[in-house]
């Protein structure tokens, strides 16, 4: 075989072999280096959800909380050490994000089939997709090729992840800061069709807001969430009362009937500019699924570390 005789051809060959994609992610990134990646992850996610359906929600949320803090770089997975404080104890995460043991199980299974190849950041992206699919939601091809960060930021986690007290304009600007549109924001919020929230995050909404179906609040929520701060703070209620473990469009139907659990949820249907989109998702799961998939892909594109930046962690909980 004749060897290429110019430096661009060598550069292209070098990049092909090393998988340097010039900052771009691609769906076939591990096709050669880890052909069994997808079934390996799907198997562990499937068993975890079979054991506890809520785990699918927790795994989906991990990806969101990873991507919103300095990009999808696995930073949320780093444990604190005596010299380093990670993101796990930031306000939106503390006593709240879960699923780290499942990510550990996935990482060990993946290391067995292709050691040192697949980043924790990519594992989070595939795991989020597999969780949505397992609970009845849409499927999509996940873009891959992210590397893992060597650091994390408690402060950025506190600042960049929107709190449930947010109003529509706060929400819009937090997403805009990540390059996501208002439509992306509404579609992604549909993730609240699965999973649970703690009383401390919806107490004000059920006792003090007026834009909530009063009989729903009285019968379904007040009994699990005492009025007094500090009592029953960790009691749980489903974000979607109707079908809490099915990924469908009933979150949007709830909003239209003033049954959002979080203040921030009901902000999406409260007489403002996003009402019409919420209505259209409430009447078409096809429209919701299609916009959700586009928005998940966009969220997965937030500031990835690629090529020679970052590393592939051996253990998702610590830098190599
Ligand atoms: C729009 C801004 C958002 C706000 C203010 C918000 C806020 C929250 C809060 C307060 C909880 C309950 C946490 C607890 O009580 O411990 C929660 C749960 C959850 N969030 Fe969000 N969230 C937002 C967007 C998203 C997005 C974009 C996704 C994913 C694409 C997502 C996925 C989830 C899931 C699945 C749960 C349930 C987790 C579980 O049961 O373990 N959220 N969110």
Q: Could you characterize the architecture of this molecule?
A:
The chain is mainly α and 320 residues long. The chain has two domains: 27-161, Peroxidase, domain 1; 180-298, Peroxidase, domain 2. It is built from 14 helices and two strands, in the order ααααααααβααβαααα. The chain has helices at residues 7-18, 37-51, 54-67, 100-113, 120-134, 154-160, 168-176, 182-189, 199-208, 214-221, 250-256, 263-267, 275-283, 285-300, and strands at 196-198, 236-238. Strands 1-2 form a two-stranded antiparallel ribbon. α11 (250-256) packs across α13. The structure holds protoporphyrin IX containing FE. Protoporphyrin IX containing FE binds at residues 54, 57-58, 60-61, 64, 96, 98, 162-164, 166, 171, 188-189, 191-192, 194-198, 201, 239, 262, 264. One of its GO terms (cellular component) is extracellular region. Keywords: Calcium, Disulfide bond, Glycoprotein, Heme, Hydrogen peroxide, Iron, Metal-binding, Oxidoreductase, Peroxidase, Secreted, Signal. Belongs to the peroxidase family. Ascorbate peroxidase subfamily. It is found in: Secreted.
Question: Which helices and strands appear, and what pairs or packs with what?
Answer:
Blueprint: H1 7-18, H2 37-51, H3 54-67, H4 100-113, H5 120-134, H6 154-160, H7 168-176, H8 182-189, E1 196-198, H9 199-208, H10 214-221, E2 236-238, H11 250-256, H12 263-267, H13 275-283, H14 285-300
Helix pairs in contact: 2-4, 2-5, 3-5, 8-14, 11-13, 13-14
Descriptive terms for the model:
EC 1.11.1.7; hydrogen peroxide; peroxidase; Peroxidases_AS; Peroxidase, domain 1; 2 strands; 320 residues; heme binding; binds protoporphyrin IX containing FE; Peroxidase, domain 2
